[in-house]
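ok so I'm stuck.
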Amino acid sequence: MFSYFRKMKGNGAANIPRVTLSEIFWGWFGAVIGISTVAYIDQFVFANSDLLMIIGSFGASAVLIYGAIKSPLAQPRNLVGGHILSALVGVTAYQLIPDPIWLSAGLAVATAIAVMLATKTVHPPGGATALIAVIGSTKIHDLGYLYTLMPVGLGALIMLLIALLINNIPKGRRYPEYWF
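replied:
not stuck anymore, here's the structure
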């Protein structure tokens, strides 16, 4: 029993190294451009439609693809695949079990995790993408499987394009580490 609780102390590994001011700036700059672009499209291009372009999980994706660019979780396969597969799972969960929401929400996130693990596309914001498909507004529910393509797929691709452009400006940064 004590060994179980001892595991919660951690393994004594060193903490995360400090980040340079340059890394902080480029992560900040990429996030400003990436999120602002997707939000601009949402606000001005789709303002008079039932479509939307931005979802909360993109904020978490921005942390990874602009701030933690070497992480396996930030690579293009994970970003795009994790979001799209999780969106498919979330929409399916909601359509199969719209009520009770607590059950469809739990099944959506858990199944999204399983699918991302099985397909090597783990992107933690994907869990939020699946959850948004279930607990989102009527506007999101009305999109059905279109939610997978837009806002999720197109938004992730726009953020990826900006990550490719911004993250490769400074000499000491390279993104991605790999594609597949």
